[in-house]
Amino acid sequence: MPIQVLPDHLIAKIAAGEVVERPASVVKELLENALDAGAGYIQVDIQQGGRRLIRVSDDGSGINQQEAPLAVTRHATSKLSAADDLTRILTLGFRGEALASIAAVSLLTLSTRHRDEDVGTEIRVAGGELMHQKAVGAPAGTVISVENLFYNTPARLKFLKAEATEKRQIATLISRYAMAYPQVRFVLTQDNREQFRSPGSGRLADVVVRVMGVEAFERMIDVYNEEPLPTTGEAIRVTGYASLPEFTRNDRTRIVLFINGRAVQDHSLVHAVTQAYHGLIDRSRYPYAVLMLDVPPDFVDVNVHPTKAEVRFQDANVIFAALQRAVRTALVLALEQSGYPPHERVHDPATRPRPAQGWQRPYESDASDASDTPYQDAPFQTEMGLTFDETSPRSTAEAPAANAPNDAPESAPAQRPRTLPVLRVVGQVGAAYIVAEGPAGMYLIDQHAAHWRLLYNAYQEALNADHLPLIEAETRPVDLSPEAARTLEAALEPLQAMGFTLEPFGPASFRLRTLPEFLSGHDAADILRGLVEALSADDPQEAITQHVSQRAALTAGEILSNEDMRALVQQLERAPNPLQGPDGRPTLIHMSAEQIAHQFSR
Ligand code: ADP
Ligand code: MG
Questions:
Q1: Cis peptide upstream of residue 409 (ω within 30 degrees of 0)
Q2: Which distant-in-sequence residues (6+ apart) come within 8 Å of 539 by Cβ?
Q3: How many Å lie between the centroid of ligand 1 and the Cα of residue 235?
């Protein structure tokens, strides 16, 4: 056969194969046109899974009489003018080929009236041939009916899935667009039965409830995150809902993503969402999620594939990271809220620390300071970009009550205010450090310093509250130097107030009768020598508190179980002064996600 230019109707049919794969792809194109036309109401009527009829009616702008024939002509569009517009596409359509393609493989009727015109137009196209155009009376808006889809492409017809499958595809599609456009009322009927209706309230939550049911929705959390693009500083925003780790399924099909209002199928973005659940759900499970990404239009290239379901990004990593971070942050916050009762907000003056009894000035005044400052770490929280109070911008305005933060039962006991974000223990390194992950990056925790901080706080608090658990110690007498004995002798009373009951046993010998519970199992001689040393410090109470809590603390070299590490980290999260040991050295090193990325030159 000689080379020849194909006739138009064949070109159209070939092109149609790319755009119009199945009934659902027709529905998608018609929906996008209605949305581009600014519709507030879109009704979709389907017969026989779309084979017999697909009809989409909208109350959008409509098309004026002269332009109507152009609408069904290939490469005719009202949405693009110059080629450079392709870099900033704000409409769903732009290729100007959907209607022409659909018309090439069906019997298409377009009935439309432009809002500024009195008379409407009806156009009929069969297999790409314009059959007629006539003036009609019609409400403002557009109705497009597609009958006998693929009647003239038998191969395509053969490949159509079972009617039930097509019906399901269409229903899924409508529900997705309803979620992406919560301000638009969608109605879907299949074979004359209403199958779906969205309220058009503008609230995503309302649509998600319609699509997934209230029970499912209650097991989802809201995701909200906005961050600047590293390059231009324009915002990338991620909003929507994601399921709690307890609510999963065995495939990825319920991870629904939209970019700038366009439903996209992108493996790497779906992966970003599942990655956010790493360590929280089994590898074989997948979450439910409905997430909207809003990025600057020139950051994404939607002109990759005729169906526009695939997109490319200027920098896919940035999007990936933003999405993953948004979901992860929401999850970590939600887990915190479900795991803990509401935070104690008011520092009750009745529980103000009192100095331990038995010490005289000048020690007294100093003793109360350190533990009376549960909020002194606030700047640290801000530095990490997270403050854990109810006003934090985690929820969109339309966040439903079910997701409201801090609605744990009122009967729950008061908790300390949180001084660190929720951390997830990853593991232990060098038998000395705990690696943990938080919403703001990685934490390396010195197990000795952290445990020392906790014991120190606990000891000090117990003393202040006059509620120190003691144990009876039947220790053997400890021989000391005469000088050490004199030092102890002079401090018997205050030492007793700190939990150490000493019984003189001969001239320079003491027996320890009671000691603080947390020191159980420690060597009495060691303890007494430590007390003697501490008693010579400027502030003996502080010195003793520091000394004995350090003694009892975990040391480097101890291998910890996951349980132990978690317990330690959880306590540290609510400890006053969690960042420093009692001697002022750090308990943890924090590396933000940005710092880590920077280290990897990303
Ligand atoms: P595209 O959407 O890529 O521009 P289409 O073939 O889908 O191409 O539509 C061609 C043109 O027809 C659109 O640019 C628009 O002007 C007009 N059009 C199609 N559907 C509608 C509708 N529902 N309401 C108003 N105008 C429409
Ligand atoms: Mg279109």
A1: no
A2: 363, 366
A3: 30
**Nearest atom, ligand 1, residue 60 CA:** 24
**Contacting residues for 216 by C-beta, under 8 A, at least 6 apart:** 243, 247, 288
pLDDT tens digit sequence for 177-189: 999 899 999 999 9
Q: Which ligand is nearest to the CA of 97?
A: 1
Query: For a pocket test of ligand 1, which of 78, 94, 146 has the largest count of ligand atoms closer than 8 A to its C-beta?
Result: 78
In the sheet that holds 193-197, the strands lie side by side as 129-136, 120-126, 107-113, 141-147, 53-58, 41-47, 185-190, 193-197
> Which residue, by CA, sits nearest to atom 23 of ligand 1?
34
Hey, whose CA ends up nearest to atom 17 of ligand 1? 71
The rounded distance, in Å, linking the Cα atoms of 16 and 102 is 6
Q: Are β-strands 107-113 and 141-147 bridged in parallel, bridged antiparallel, or unpaired?
A: antiparallel
Q: What is the pTM of this model?
A: 0.56
Q: What is the pLDDT of residues 287-297, one digit of tens each?
A: 999 999 998 88
Q: What span, in angstroms and rounded, lies between the C-alpha atoms of 215 and 53?
A: 34
**E-assigned strand segments in 261-335:** 262-264, 286-287, 289-294, 300-301, 312-313
Q: What single DSSP character describes residue 417? A: P
